[in-house]
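Need residues for this backbone.
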């Protein structure tokens, strides 16, 4: 290639890479595969290596700087970054809203309608980015508001931060504010890696993000997939702001910055803010990032200016905090519990603490390795986390609060219930009691059997179940169905009515579904989802009992671990007998109704390129709803390749292997009419 041609190709590649990186990181709407992206990137890297004179600081290859810094420089900013007042209840939010209206009225504003923008409150770190003439020139942490730290080289590694603004209408000077965070999944992966390297774990994504951003070596930051959302503007020169906050977000998006339009909601009244708060709180644990509340902002910027600020907090915005999911408390003792499959779990006994909406006294420590990793000692102050329905867990210890009287914990060598020697299987972190007749296991199996997602015997709590077993009225779950009125009423705290209720709910539980029944048996590795998959495949308990591991493994979504565990379970005579006794007692597990439409059963699809009417996930769901399967790579076994716009190498592969291809129209027809 001639020199001008090379230069042209380098420029082309940069444009392409920038476009795809924007589609992927900012809009979350990729059009090409990761491999195709890598190909472009590598081509650019190679040309730049051969012609270093062509490298520009804005090139996508130049995100990661090479030289570590000796310190993070302090930077004073022109406009301080404010913080936010907090509200914790509807009452407190109502007071905020009234204050806003009063202040506006004092300024002679008619306040019939104040509209608020509701935004997620990301649990990360506030930062400010400066763009001059469209180029990213400075990135700082919030610091104390006025003086922050220069983390430009680290922020350059964050892919959702553009190095250049887009379009022609961007301002000459733009300071944009937002939050850097570490997505939940990446946080978990980071901690897994740290655990295997023996490094101390981060307590939460926020700490991990802070630790990653304030690195002296940008190469370390580059290894942590930090992400960024912006939510505000500092200084602005050479353009004027729109009239509202929501439109400001639109302008930022137009300049190529990442804003969270999906979760920025314009509420027309305080009541709607409340409704939106409830909705967001219900969703919080399903989002890919952590939130600690919802930020409410007056939408009109002129009113924001009128309202101004009080000390460090704007009067036009507030943070409506979610109930905390993490709290600190003292760990009094560590006990071990024997689960239904014999797994030994260390459990922290805590000074009671209110977290995630309930009082928590016990929290799981998972296993011995985790106790070591987190360096948790008896007597420590620890961080407890309870998110939604999830079992509370100890996430970290606070070594800085130690007095010297804390004690290290050792796992027992013998089962605390039956005294059997505990075993640790290869490749497994858990210690197990191998004695299936271990009284603790028998109890745990009954608790599981009656639980809500299993046979759902409501009215039978663990305390009553324990009495039934201690009195030997129930030795295994099938005995439940032979209990007599007199036997139940003889128990502590049982009266006539509660006895009858319990008998009724035991009776009611007989009518169940095959998947619940299978799940209720408490077979290792057979969770609710797997139980459902297997139940709908066989439709009959005897067929499941007779299936070999090989046959089970052929079912999509059943792996070797599940297949082995399930087939071994039913090789055990006692387990087969238990099933028969349950059926004889009148338990009737009904076969699941087949999914209505199975027109694509057994067909494998590969999707490539963008479709107009469906997102990737929607297309996948349409196929799966009809019994079909979506795979990520084309092989001879693929039945159809669905080809959208900008289809890549998968299309070439399909042609090579002569796999039928469908354009969007043909795909829709197939969904409607079947093959
Ligand atoms: S606005 C003048 N919007 O919350 C308003 N802050 O407690 C200043 N935060 O330091 C901030 N998500 O780190 C705003 N959507 C959002 C936010 C947000 C998270 C953080 C930010 C700020 C802290 C204040």
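Answer:
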């Amino acid at each position: 290639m001639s020199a001008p041609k090379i230069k042209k190709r380098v420029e082309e590649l940069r444009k392409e890479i920038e476009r795809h990186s924007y589609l992927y990181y900012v809009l979350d709407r990729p059009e090409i595969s990761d491999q195709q992206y890598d190909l472009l990137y590598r081509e650019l890297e190679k040309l730049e290596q051969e012609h270093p004179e062509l490298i520009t600081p804005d090139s996508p290859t130049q995100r990661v700087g090479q030289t570590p810094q000796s310190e993070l420089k302090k930077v004073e900013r022109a406009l301080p970054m404010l913080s936010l007042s907090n509200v914790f209840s509807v009452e407190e939010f109502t007071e905020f809203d009234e204050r806003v209206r009063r202040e506006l009225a004092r300024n002679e504003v008619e306040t019939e309608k104040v509209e608020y923008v509701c935004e997620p409150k990301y649990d990360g770190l506030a930062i400010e980015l400066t763009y001059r003439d469209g180029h990213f020139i400075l990135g700082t942490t919030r610091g104390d508001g006025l003086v922050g730290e220069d983390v430009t080289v680290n922020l350059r590694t964050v892919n959702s931060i553009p190095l250049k603004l887009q379009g022609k209408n961007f301002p000459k000077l733009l300071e944009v504010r937002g939050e850097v965070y570490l997505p939940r999944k990446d946080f978990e992966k980071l901690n897994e890696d740290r655990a295997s390297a023996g490094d101390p774990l981060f307590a939460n994504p926020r700490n991990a993000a802070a630790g990653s951003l304030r690195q002296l070596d940008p190469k370390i930051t580059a290894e942590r997939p930090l992400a960024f959302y912006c939510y505000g503007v500092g200084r602005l020169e050479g353009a004027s702001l729109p009239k509202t906050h929501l439109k400001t977000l639109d302008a930022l998006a137009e300049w190529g910055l990442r804003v969270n339009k999906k979760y920025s909601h314009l509420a027309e009244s305080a009541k709607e803010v409340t409704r939106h708060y409830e909705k967001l709180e219900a969703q919080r644990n399903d989002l890919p990032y952590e939130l600690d509340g919802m930020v409410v902002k007056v939408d009109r910027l002129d009113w924001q200016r009128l309202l101004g600020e009080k000390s460090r907090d704007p009067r036009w915005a507030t943070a409506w905090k979610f109930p905390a999911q993490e709290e600190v408390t003292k760990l009094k003792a560590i006990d071990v519990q024997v689960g239904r499959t014999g797994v030994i779990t260390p459990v922290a006994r805590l000074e009671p603490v209110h977290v995630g909406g309930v009082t928590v006294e016990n929290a799981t420590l998972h296993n011995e390795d985790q106790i070591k990793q987190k360096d948790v000692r008896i007597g420590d102050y620890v961080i407890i986390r309870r998110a939604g329905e999830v079992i509370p867990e100890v996430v970290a210890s606070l070594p800085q609060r130690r007095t010297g009287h804390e004690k290290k914990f050792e796992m027992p060598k013998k089962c605390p219930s039956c005294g059997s020697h505990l075993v640790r299987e290869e490749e497994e972190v858990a210690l197990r009691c191998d004695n299936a007749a271990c009284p603790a296991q028998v109890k745990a199996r009954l608790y599981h059997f009656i639980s809500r997602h299993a046979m759902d015997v409501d009215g039978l709590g663990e305390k009553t179940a324990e009495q039934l077993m201690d009195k030997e009225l129930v030795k295994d779950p099938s005995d439940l169905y032979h209990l007599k009125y007199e036997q139940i009423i003889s128990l502590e705290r049982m009266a006539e009515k509660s006895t009858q209720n319990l008998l009724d709910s035991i009776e009611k539980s007989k009518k169940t579904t095959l998947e619940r029944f299978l799940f209720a048996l408490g077979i290792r590795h057979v969770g609710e989802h797997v139980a459902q998959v297997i139940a709908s495949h066989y439709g009959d308990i005897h067929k499941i009992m007779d299936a070999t591991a090989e046959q089970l493994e052929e079912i999509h979504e059943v792996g070797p671990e599940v297949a082995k565990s399930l087939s071994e379970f039913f090789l055990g005579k006692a387990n087969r007998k238990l099933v028969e006794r349950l059926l004889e007692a009148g338990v009737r597990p009904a076969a699941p109704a087949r999914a209505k439409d199975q027109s694509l059963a057994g067909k494998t699809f590969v999707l490539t390129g963008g479709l107009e009417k469906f997102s990737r996930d929607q297309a996948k769901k349409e196929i799966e709803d009809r019994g079909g399967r979506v795979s990520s790579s084309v092989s001879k076994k693929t039945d159809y390749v669905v080809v959208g716009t900008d289809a890549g190498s998968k299309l070439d592969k399909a042609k090579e292997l002569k796999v039928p291809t469908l354009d969007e129209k043909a795909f829709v027809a197939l969904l409607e009419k079947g093959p």
